[in-house]
Amino acid sequence: MRAALTWRDKAEQCIYDLAFKPDGTQLIIAAGNKLLVYDTSDGTLIQPLKGHKDTVYCVAYAKDGKRFASGSADKSVIIWTSKLEGILKYTHNDSIQCVSYNPLTHQLASCSSSDFGLWSPEQKSVSKHKTNSKITCCSWTNDGQYLALGMFNGIVSIRNKNGEEKVKIERTGGAASPIWSICWNPSSRWENFWNRANEDEEESVHSYLEELPVLNSRPGSSQCSDTEEEEHEEEESPRDSNLDEHNDILAVADWGQKLSFYQLSGKQIGKDRILNFDPCCVSYFTKGEYILLGGSDKQVSLFTKDGVRLGTIGEQSSWVWTCKVKPDSNYVVIGCQDGTISFYQLIFSTVHGLYKDRYAYRDNMTDVIVQHLITEQKVRIKGRELVKKIAIYKNRLAIQMPEKILIYELYSDDSSDMYYRVKEKIVKKFECNLLVVCSAHIILCQEKRLQCLSFSGIKEREWLMESLIRYIKVIGGPPGREGLLVGLKNGQILKIFVDNVFAIVLLKQATAVRCLDMSASRNKLAVVDENDTCLVYDIHTKELLFQEPNANSVAWNAQCEDMLCFSGGGYLNIKASNFPVHQQKLQGFVVGYNGSKIFCLHVFSMSAVEVPQSAPMYQYLERKMFREAYQIACLGVTDADWRELAMEALEGLEFETAKKAFTRVRDLRYLELISSIEERKKHGESNNDLFLADVYAYQGKFHEAAKLYKKSGHENLALDMYSDLRMFDYAKDFLGSGDPKDTKMLIKKQADWAKNINEPKAAVEMYLSAGEHMKAIEISGDHGWVDMLIEIARKLDKAEREPLSKCAFYFKKLDNPGYAAETYMKVGDLKALIDLHVETHRWEEAFALTEKHPEFKDDVYVPYAQWLAENDRFEEAQKAFHKAGRQGEAVRVLEQLTHNAVVESRFSDAAYYYWMLSMQCVDIAQENEQQKTEMLQKFHHFQHLAEVYHVYHSIQRYTEEPFSFHLPETLFNISRFLLHSLTKETPLGISKVNTLFALAKQSKALGAYKLARHAYDKLQGLQIPARFQKSIELGSLTIRSKPFHDSEELVPLCYRCSTNNPLLNNLGNVCINCRQPFVFSASSYEVLHLVEFYLEDGITDEEAVALIDLEAPRLSKRESKWQEMMNAQSLRLDDNTDATEDDDPFTAKLSFEQGGSEFVPVVVNRAVLQSMSRRDVLVKRWPKPLRWQYYRSLLPDASITMCPSCFQMFHSEDYELLVLQHNCCPFCRRRIDESSQ
């Protein structure tokens, strides 16, 4: 610290007091009986103020800058405005000793020898308070709550705003030590130092470490100032509303030559500081960090806020009565006994040390703060003595104080550890210009001399230089053998090892050295000389490598051999290798360079500036020095710079560097590319053009890539690249008039792309031009473009079967069978054409084709038959199955349909289906000799079932429906027929209950009481449905009132043996006498007057019919009347015709021996056949292998009609009626042609 005189003036009288205007522009001085107003900037006297009649002892300015007050020996106080006008005057009983303005309320305290007064602008009167001793000085607390009064009797009285005494401080010296000056510390920030005041001074000072809070600092932001941290501490300990002992500190100077400090409560802080002179004035700096003290020693001394003397400010020729600090500055004004007014500027020099990322600097003149420049951590080492020099090296820290040197070490070897402890003390006074610390030594620099001391203070060796030492720096080395770099004023640069008495001259230059640094590898030396030139030398050759102007400091990068930075002229300059300098703005001095961080000292603060190493990296890249560029990038560049490095290295085929750079930016695509290239190189591939082409392709430089592909003879790769990127126009340009195959392939790829991006029409056209007909057809078909398919199909050659078949497939799918047929015809695919006709049910075209090509008969008739069967056209289906030769399948279909009809109670349909099944069995028996017997059995079984279901249809309708469609006699006959037919087993769906119920009711109604009773008895043993229960129970009761016999009119007659048969026949539907089966009408189920006869062996059916048809002589006796009626063979006799049969040979054949149990059929010979009349015979002309059946009518008068299809017999009248109702046979549903009726 040094004081520079700014201006000086001399008044005629003693200067007792002075005061600054709060803004610092004016200075009010009490000189004699006048006030002198000075301009502080240059010491110009602005105006003297006259108002007092005697010597002015005191002056004070209000904090708001609006007024000031002066007190005089004439017992008056004058209030002045800032415009230097007196506005108010009041008096005391004695001379005024001191005045002071309340900092908040601007209340004025004026003190005299016997009392003190309190005046404020809003008060009309001055309140005065008596004291028992002369008041020599006064001072308000910062918050304006309390006023401290210093008394001549050595007592300090602390009063409140109303003048009441709250605290009284009685000092040990008493009246022998009158208080001459007091002042409250203006700073409200208080530190824990005072709490340790009673500890051993030396230990408490030098062993205590306080880690500074860094809460206001964020990563990447500049470190907050110490002031901010202290404010932070204030927030953590808020002010107490009572007497706050932590915030208000009173400095008291007495003529017992002591300086003391007190809390507001009156408690003394620490011990009295012995001054060795009589103090006349004490005042604080604006922020309270320093104290000014002047008096009988004719000088002003600078003290720390806790009373440690730091130095002298301006020695004077007489006593100093007053000294003050200009608000918020380092300017000090001094007023002396002889009238001298001196205005000084205090210059605080920077005391600091730096090693790599640790920076130690002096704070508040007595403290040392160690800052870690990377982690932003700070540690404060508190002291009570002036810090003169600081040195730091690795884990060592040396602090020089006026009477000793303290050496600290870190607690641990952790690089982030910030806790120091005292290792050694060298209690000795040293005078030195520079201080350096090593692992085990202290180096002191005294002008030309260097001394090496051990930590115990013993001088081990000494070096004497030729010239003044200007710069010294530790450059590392083994512990105890470190090297020092020394720069001299004469331009000599030396290297000294602490264990070697001989200095090594590295080089000598013409100009004085200001700053030095050596590169990491110790190969290069950077020097800044007194001409602000940075010079870089090769240490081994002594050659000047380059020099740069405008430098005030220089530093090599600790991590990169070829990089250094230097500052000067407001710029930071970074130089890599021998490339041009890169500049950016920066205020301050460069003191270190580590990686991408540059440590810069600006005024009093050290900061780590993050500097991207982009510029030097790009300089290396320009010269294709990829590895060096990578090393620079590792120091710290942006992601964009890393990517640029990676790309440049890749293009330069420096794959190792490129891989590292792409790993930094996490670009997997390029890493895969590099990996694939390296793999290919391992397999012997060495075409760099090809590798570079791949790189260009990845970078999007497609045309350059294509040229390189072509150059390396891989045009196909260029085409693949363009087609993958859908750059088909470029691909075509690239091909030019090349191989047509490549062109086709390109068009195909373009079509694939068009298809993928939903441009199907364009894709179709491209596929067609590339000859890819199948894909074009598929797209057209999937989108339903029939016109496009027609166009394609007609253009295709018939030899291209696959695409044409695909066209036909889509025609079918899109419901255009005509075009599909045309396509199949073009191909000649008859099988597919027939399948098409079958699928579309175009049977006529299919049949026409089968006529020409019989081999496809099965392919047409089988599905045709199935279609007919599905559409209930069974008769046609039968024919189709026949034509297809699939009788077995026809039978299965019909069996299923029959079963369904029975289950659904459609018994009429079931009868019809069973009849058809029986006829189908005959057809199979005709064609298959092996199945003949089985099929004939099935024929008879199905015929029987057809009759049973045909009959049961009427029973079911009678029992289920409310109205009957049949006469009672018919229902009676039907019920009897059905009952007699069910002797063995009951087919599915037929109910015995319904049959017996119908028989019982009709028997009872027609007089067959015995049969009715039998039916009711049978019903009792069966499960009766609820709906019949009451009716059957009632019938069972009422039938018992009827006679136990049947009406004779109902008894059936056997026309062969003329036997009356019982209504209930255990044998079934045969005669009980002759066993001749009855022939029933298929409508009324009455017994018909027909007798079946058989032919003698040797007579064929054709011969028998011929014999019957012969005109026998006896036939002339009567007129034969044949009628062909409704396509049915009818036999009719006129009423007037005489029937004489006495001479009929057939009648003789009917004779039968009573009592035979076996049925004896009627067998006729040729003579009998010849005697028969054609009108009396009905022939069932069954197809082979069945034999024909012959029946002779015994009552020619009654007309009988036989259906020529199913051979069922009917009374002619019934048949005609049924045909009119149904337009077909009621049994086989054979349709009757309208025109033939």
Automatic annotation (TrEMBL):
All residue ranges annotated as the IFT122 second beta-propeller domain in the record: 352-606
A single GO BP: intraciliary retrograde transport
Bias type Acidic residues, positions: 226-237
InterPro entries reported for this sequence: Beta-prop_IFT122_1st, Beta-prop_IFT122_2nd, Ift122/121, TPR_IFT122, WD40/YVTN_repeat-like_dom_sf, WD40_repeat_dom_sf, WD40_rpt, Zn_ribbon_IFT122
Main location (coarse class): cytoplasm
Residue ranges of the region described as Disordered: 215-243
Keywords, in A-Z order: Cell projection, Cilium, Cilium biogenesis/degradation, Cytoplasm, Cytoskeleton, Developmental protein, Repeat, WD repeat
Occurrences of domain IFT122 zinc ribbon (ranges): 1047-1091
WD repeat locations: 49-80
Name of one Pfam family that matches: TPR_IFT122
Compartments where located: Cytoplasm, Cytoskeleton, Cilium basal body
Any Gene Ontology CC annotation: intraciliary transport particle A
Ranges for domain IFT122 first beta-propeller: 2-347
Span of domain Intraflagellar transport protein 122 homolog TPR: 613-994
Name by which UniProt lists this protein: Intraflagellar transport protein 122 homolog
Species of origin: Nothoprocta perdicaria (Chilean tinamou)
Gene name, Swiss-Prot/TrEMBL: IFT122
